[in-house]
Design the sequence.
Protein backbone atom coordinates (compact mmCIF):
# COMPACT_ATOMS: atom_id res chain seq x y z
CA UNK A 1 0.00 0.00 0.00
CA UNK A 2 3.01 2.29 0.34
CA UNK A 3 4.12 4.97 -2.06
CA UNK A 4 6.93 7.56 -2.07
CA UNK A 5 7.23 10.16 0.70
CA UNK A 6 4.51 12.83 0.71
CA UNK A 7 5.48 16.38 -0.26
CA UNK A 8 5.84 18.95 2.55
CA UNK A 9 2.73 20.98 3.40
CA UNK A 10 3.90 24.57 3.80
CA UNK A 11 1.83 27.26 5.46
CA UNK A 12 3.33 30.73 5.00
CA UNK A 13 2.27 34.06 6.52
CA UNK A 14 -1.35 32.99 6.71
CA UNK A 15 -3.69 35.79 7.76
CA UNK A 16 -7.46 35.49 8.20
CA UNK A 17 -9.73 38.31 9.35
CA UNK A 18 -13.38 38.22 10.38
CA UNK A 19 -14.95 41.70 10.51
CA UNK A 20 -12.13 43.40 12.36
CA UNK A 21 -10.97 40.32 14.30
CA UNK A 22 -7.66 38.83 13.18
CA UNK A 23 -8.24 35.09 13.66
CA UNK A 24 -4.83 34.20 12.13
CA UNK A 25 -1.96 36.65 12.02
CA UNK A 26 0.86 35.75 9.61
CA UNK A 27 1.02 32.15 10.81
CA UNK A 28 3.61 29.86 9.28
CA UNK A 29 4.69 26.25 9.81
CA UNK A 30 5.56 23.19 7.75
CA UNK A 31 4.19 19.69 8.08
CA UNK A 32 7.33 17.67 7.30
CA UNK A 33 6.98 14.67 4.94
CA UNK A 34 5.65 11.67 6.83
CA UNK A 35 5.39 13.45 10.17
CA UNK A 36 2.57 13.67 12.67
CA UNK A 37 2.21 17.39 13.35
CA UNK A 38 -0.10 18.71 16.07
CA UNK A 39 -1.71 22.15 16.05
CA UNK A 40 -2.61 23.17 19.60
CA UNK A 41 -3.64 26.27 21.54
CA UNK A 42 -6.28 27.57 23.92
CA UNK A 43 -9.88 28.10 22.80
CA UNK A 44 -10.17 30.81 20.17
CA UNK A 45 -6.48 30.51 19.21
CA UNK A 46 -7.30 30.00 15.53
CA UNK A 47 -6.85 26.23 15.13
CA UNK A 48 -10.16 25.56 13.40
CA UNK A 49 -9.72 28.64 11.24
CA UNK A 50 -6.35 27.32 10.10
CA UNK A 51 -7.89 23.93 9.34
CA UNK A 52 -10.67 25.57 7.37
CA UNK A 53 -8.16 27.48 5.24
CA UNK A 54 -6.11 24.34 4.60
CA UNK A 55 -9.20 22.44 3.45
CA UNK A 56 -10.55 25.33 1.34
CA UNK A 57 -13.55 26.27 3.48
CA UNK A 58 -12.18 29.76 4.35
CA UNK A 59 -10.25 32.12 2.11
CA UNK A 60 -7.27 33.84 3.73
CA UNK A 61 -6.70 37.61 3.47
CA UNK A 62 -3.00 36.89 2.88
CA UNK A 63 -0.46 34.10 2.85
CA UNK A 64 -0.18 30.77 1.12
CA UNK A 65 -0.59 27.03 1.50
CA UNK A 66 1.40 24.70 -0.73
CA UNK A 67 1.76 20.93 -1.00
CA UNK A 68 5.12 20.39 -2.65
CA UNK A 69 4.88 22.41 -5.86
CA UNK A 70 1.08 22.62 -5.82
CA UNK A 71 -0.46 25.88 -4.72
CA UNK A 72 -3.55 25.11 -2.62
CA UNK A 73 -4.36 28.64 -1.49
CA UNK A 74 -7.94 29.66 -2.29
CA UNK A 75 -8.79 26.46 -4.19
CA UNK A 76 -12.22 24.88 -3.65
CA UNK A 77 -12.38 22.01 -1.13
CA UNK A 78 -12.78 19.27 -3.78
CA UNK A 79 -9.72 20.55 -5.70
CA UNK A 80 -7.64 20.53 -2.53
CA UNK A 81 -8.79 16.97 -1.78
CA UNK A 82 -7.91 15.92 -5.34
CA UNK A 83 -4.41 17.36 -4.88
CA UNK A 84 -3.87 15.14 -1.85
CA UNK A 85 -5.13 16.87 1.30
CA UNK A 86 -8.14 15.20 2.95
CA UNK A 87 -9.81 16.09 6.22
CA UNK A 88 -12.14 14.66 8.83
CA UNK A 89 -14.68 16.75 10.69
CA UNK A 90 -14.91 17.23 14.42
CA UNK A 91 -18.58 16.29 14.51
CA UNK A 92 -19.60 12.96 13.07
CA UNK A 93 -21.98 13.38 10.14
CA UNK A 94 -22.29 9.72 9.18
CA UNK A 95 -25.38 7.85 10.33
CA UNK A 96 -26.76 6.35 7.13
CA UNK A 97 -25.66 3.30 5.16
CA UNK A 98 -23.11 0.59 5.83
CA UNK A 99 -19.41 1.13 6.47
CA UNK A 100 -18.80 0.03 2.87
CA UNK A 101 -21.34 2.56 1.55
CA UNK A 102 -19.64 5.37 3.45
CA UNK A 103 -16.17 4.44 2.29
CA UNK A 104 -17.34 4.10 -1.32
CA UNK A 105 -18.75 7.62 -1.03
CA UNK A 106 -15.19 8.68 -0.27
CA UNK A 107 -14.03 6.91 -3.46
CA UNK A 108 -16.69 8.67 -5.53
CA UNK A 109 -14.51 11.71 -6.18
CA UNK A 110 -11.92 9.38 -7.75
CA UNK A 111 -14.35 7.52 -10.03
CA UNK A 112 -13.40 7.77 -13.67
CA UNK A 113 -16.50 6.01 -14.99
CA UNK A 114 -19.40 8.43 -15.15
CA UNK A 115 -22.58 8.10 -13.13
CA UNK A 116 -24.59 6.82 -16.14
CA UNK A 117 -22.01 4.16 -16.98
CA UNK A 118 -22.06 2.99 -13.38
CA UNK A 119 -25.87 2.96 -13.22
CA UNK A 120 -26.02 0.98 -16.49
CA UNK A 121 -23.44 -1.47 -15.11
CA UNK A 122 -21.22 -1.18 -18.20
CA UNK A 123 -18.27 -3.61 -17.94
CA UNK A 124 -15.56 -1.02 -17.33
CA UNK A 125 -17.74 0.65 -14.70
CA UNK A 126 -18.38 -2.68 -12.97
CA UNK A 127 -14.64 -3.40 -12.93
CA UNK A 128 -13.94 0.02 -11.51
CA UNK A 129 -16.59 -0.38 -8.80
CA UNK A 130 -15.06 -3.73 -7.84
CA UNK A 131 -11.60 -2.14 -7.56
CA UNK A 132 -12.98 0.70 -5.43
CA UNK A 133 -14.68 -1.77 -3.12
CA UNK A 134 -11.47 -3.76 -2.72
CA UNK A 135 -9.50 -0.62 -1.91
CA UNK A 136 -12.20 0.55 0.54
CA UNK A 137 -11.96 -2.84 2.26
CA UNK A 138 -8.19 -2.38 2.63
CA UNK A 139 -8.77 0.93 4.40
CA UNK A 140 -11.42 -0.69 6.60
CA UNK A 141 -8.93 -3.40 7.62
CA UNK A 142 -6.23 -0.81 8.27
CA UNK A 143 -8.49 1.19 10.60
CA UNK A 144 -9.80 -1.87 12.44
CA UNK A 145 -13.20 -1.82 10.73
CA UNK A 146 -12.74 -5.01 8.70
CA UNK A 147 -15.31 -7.03 10.71
CA UNK A 148 -17.86 -4.19 10.37
CA UNK A 149 -17.47 -3.61 6.61
CA UNK A 150 -21.05 -4.57 5.72
CA UNK A 151 -22.69 -3.37 8.94
CA UNK A 152 -24.88 -0.24 9.14
CA UNK A 153 -22.87 2.64 10.61
CA UNK A 154 -25.78 3.39 12.98
CA UNK A 155 -25.07 0.10 14.81
CA UNK A 156 -21.40 0.91 15.48
CA UNK A 157 -19.95 2.34 18.68
CA UNK A 158 -18.90 5.99 18.78
CA UNK A 159 -15.21 5.07 18.53
CA UNK A 160 -15.85 2.87 15.50
CA UNK A 161 -17.81 5.65 13.79
CA UNK A 162 -14.96 8.10 14.32
CA UNK A 163 -12.73 5.58 12.56
CA UNK A 164 -15.24 5.33 9.69
CA UNK A 165 -14.70 9.08 9.20
CA UNK A 166 -10.97 8.55 9.14
CA UNK A 167 -11.23 5.63 6.70
CA UNK A 168 -13.50 7.67 4.45
CA UNK A 169 -10.88 10.43 4.29
CA UNK A 170 -8.27 7.77 3.44
CA UNK A 171 -10.42 6.67 0.50
CA UNK A 172 -9.45 9.94 -1.20
CA UNK A 173 -5.84 8.61 -1.28
CA UNK A 174 -4.47 11.68 0.52
CA UNK A 175 -0.79 12.47 1.00
CA UNK A 176 -1.68 14.66 3.97
CA UNK A 177 -4.48 13.78 6.37
CA UNK A 178 -6.05 16.58 8.43
CA UNK A 179 -7.69 15.33 11.62
CA UNK A 180 -9.93 17.66 13.59
CA UNK A 181 -10.04 16.49 17.22
CA UNK A 182 -10.00 12.79 16.35
CA UNK A 183 -10.52 11.61 19.94
CA UNK A 184 -13.06 14.21 21.10
CA UNK A 185 -15.77 12.56 23.18
CA UNK A 186 -13.96 9.19 23.37
CA UNK A 187 -13.20 7.15 26.46
CA UNK A 188 -9.65 6.08 27.36
CA UNK A 189 -9.69 2.76 25.50
CA UNK A 190 -11.13 4.33 22.34
CA UNK A 191 -8.51 7.11 22.51
CA UNK A 192 -5.65 4.62 22.73
CA UNK A 193 -7.11 2.69 19.82
CA UNK A 194 -7.45 5.82 17.66
CA UNK A 195 -3.86 6.83 18.47
CA UNK A 196 -2.66 3.38 17.39
CA UNK A 197 -4.67 3.62 14.16
CA UNK A 198 -3.24 7.06 13.33
CA UNK A 199 0.29 5.66 13.78
CA UNK A 200 -0.49 2.59 11.66
CA UNK A 201 -2.06 4.65 8.90
CA UNK A 202 0.91 7.03 8.81
CA UNK A 203 3.35 4.13 8.55
CA UNK A 204 1.45 1.88 6.16
CA UNK A 205 0.31 4.60 3.78
CA UNK A 206 3.37 6.82 4.10
CA UNK A 207 1.42 10.02 4.56
CA UNK A 208 1.70 13.10 6.78
CA UNK A 209 -0.85 13.91 9.48
CA UNK A 210 -1.84 17.32 10.83
CA UNK A 211 -4.05 17.07 13.87
CA UNK A 212 -5.89 19.57 16.02
CA UNK A 213 -6.37 18.02 19.43
CA UNK A 214 -7.23 19.12 22.96
CA UNK A 215 -5.98 15.95 24.64
CA UNK A 216 -2.47 17.08 25.59
CA UNK A 217 -1.40 13.63 26.72
CA UNK A 218 -2.27 12.23 23.30
CA UNK A 219 -0.57 15.11 21.47
CA UNK A 220 2.62 14.64 23.45
CA UNK A 221 2.68 10.89 22.81
CA UNK A 222 1.68 10.98 19.16
CA UNK A 223 3.18 14.10 17.59
CA UNK A 224 6.68 14.43 16.10
CA UNK A 225 6.26 18.19 15.99
CA UNK A 226 3.90 20.67 17.60
CA UNK A 227 2.83 24.19 16.55
CA UNK A 228 1.23 26.35 19.23
CA UNK A 229 -1.21 29.15 18.41
CA UNK A 230 -2.51 31.80 20.78
CA UNK A 231 -4.81 34.67 19.74
CA UNK A 232 -4.09 33.94 16.08
CA UNK A 233 -0.31 34.00 16.44
CA UNK A 234 2.20 31.18 16.35
CA UNK A 235 3.82 31.46 19.78
CA UNK A 236 5.93 28.29 19.77
CA UNK A 237 6.87 25.25 17.76
CA UNK A 238 9.14 22.24 18.00
CA UNK A 239 9.21 18.78 19.50
CA UNK A 240 6.64 17.93 22.21
CA UNK A 241 9.40 18.38 24.83
CA UNK A 242 10.44 21.80 23.47
CA UNK A 243 6.85 22.97 23.54
CA UNK A 244 5.99 21.50 26.93
CA UNK A 245 8.82 23.49 28.54
CA UNK A 246 8.26 26.72 26.63
CA UNK A 247 7.42 29.60 29.02
CA UNK A 248 5.21 31.30 26.39
CA UNK A 249 3.15 28.14 26.05
CA UNK A 250 2.80 27.77 29.81
CA UNK A 251 1.68 31.38 30.02
CA UNK A 252 -0.87 30.88 27.20
CA UNK A 253 -2.42 27.94 28.98
CA UNK A 254 -2.20 29.72 32.36
CA UNK A 255 -1.01 26.63 34.12
CA UNK A 256 -3.72 24.40 32.66
CA UNK A 257 -1.52 22.11 30.50
CA UNK A 258 -0.43 20.14 33.54
CA UNK A 259 -4.04 19.63 34.50
CA UNK A 260 -5.03 18.54 31.00
CA UNK A 261 -2.15 16.10 30.87
CA UNK A 262 -3.34 14.45 34.07
CA UNK A 263 -6.90 14.05 32.87
CA UNK A 264 -5.83 12.69 29.44
P1 LIG B 1 -9.96 27.54 17.92
O1 LIG B 1 -10.38 26.49 16.94
O2 LIG B 1 -8.50 27.58 18.17
O3 LIG B 1 -10.73 27.44 19.22
P2 LIG B 1 -11.15 29.36 16.00
O4 LIG B 1 -10.29 29.23 14.80
O5 LIG B 1 -12.45 28.66 15.98
O6 LIG B 1 -10.32 28.99 17.31
O7 LIG B 1 -11.45 30.90 16.27
C1 LIG B 1 -10.44 31.90 16.26
C2 LIG B 1 -11.12 33.26 16.42
O8 LIG B 1 -11.85 33.57 15.23
C3 LIG B 1 -12.13 33.30 17.56
O9 LIG B 1 -12.06 34.57 18.17
C4 LIG B 1 -13.44 33.07 16.86
O10 LIG B 1 -14.49 33.67 17.58
C5 LIG B 1 -13.22 33.75 15.52
N1 LIG B 1 -13.99 33.11 14.43
C6 LIG B 1 -13.85 31.85 13.97
N2 LIG B 1 -14.66 31.61 12.94
C7 LIG B 1 -15.35 32.75 12.73
C8 LIG B 1 -16.37 33.15 11.80
N3 LIG B 1 -16.81 32.31 10.86
N4 LIG B 1 -16.85 34.42 11.90
C9 LIG B 1 -16.39 35.27 12.84
N5 LIG B 1 -15.44 34.96 13.74
C10 LIG B 1 -14.93 33.73 13.69
MG1 LIG C 1 -11.84 25.00 17.17
Sequence:
Amino acid sequence: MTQGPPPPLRITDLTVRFAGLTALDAVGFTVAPGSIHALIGPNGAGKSTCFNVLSGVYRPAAGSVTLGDSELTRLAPHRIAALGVARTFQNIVTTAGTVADNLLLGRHALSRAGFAATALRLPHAVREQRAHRARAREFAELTGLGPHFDKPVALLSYGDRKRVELARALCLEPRVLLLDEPVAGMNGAERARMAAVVRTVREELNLSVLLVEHDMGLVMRLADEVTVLDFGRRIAGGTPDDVRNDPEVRRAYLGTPGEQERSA
